[in-house]
Amino acid sequence: MTKRRSTGQLEAAVLEYLWAVGEPSTPGEVHDSVAPDLAYTTVMTVLNRLHKKGSVERERRGRAFGYWPSEAEAKHRAHRMHDQLIAAGDRHAVLSSFVETLTNTEADELRRLLDEAAQ
Questions:
Q1: What is the pLDDT of residue 98?
Q2: Between 20 and 30 A from 115 (CA), which of 59, 66, 76, 105?
Q3: How far is it, in rounded angstroms, from Cα 88 to Cα 116?
Q4: What is the pLDDT of residues 18-63, one digit of tens each?
């Protein structure tokens, strides 16, 4: 029996694949690489949803579309982190908890970036 993936997990897997290949990919290529155990139409639906959300762009490639991420992975993840922070009831608590998870190297890098942004 195949373990069922949530829509969010499948969307994330598709985006990971598209970032990794670094060029437009057809639904068939995405299907074969990301979810060959699922129906081709499921992958098409995920790509269409990602396109409607603005997470991927597309252009005609013969009879199919080629899809690619609309932004770099780092920018995408930063937007998601910011969205989570905005949704938080207590931003201070969330930021404090986040900082506690950082290694010393990550904390130093964050300090450096904050100092650069302040200048």
A1: 92
A2: 76
A3: 26
A4: 999 999 999 999 999 999 999 999 999 999 999 999 999 999 988 9
**Residue ranges in the chain assigned as alpha helix (H):** 7-21, 27-34, 40-53, 73-87, 91-101, 104-118
Residues 96-115 have pLDDT tens digits of 999 999 999 999 999 999 99
What do you get for the CA distance between the two ends of the chain, in Å? 56
Measured in degrees and rounded to the nearest 5, phi and psi for residue 64 equal: -115, 180
Q: Compute CA distances 38 → 27, 41, 73, whole Å.
A: 12, 8, 25
**Closest Cα to residue 7, out of 36, 37, 47, 40?**
47
Considering the entire predicted model, what is its pTM?
0.79
The type of residue at 33 is S
Phi, psi for 36 (deg, rounded to 5): -65, -15
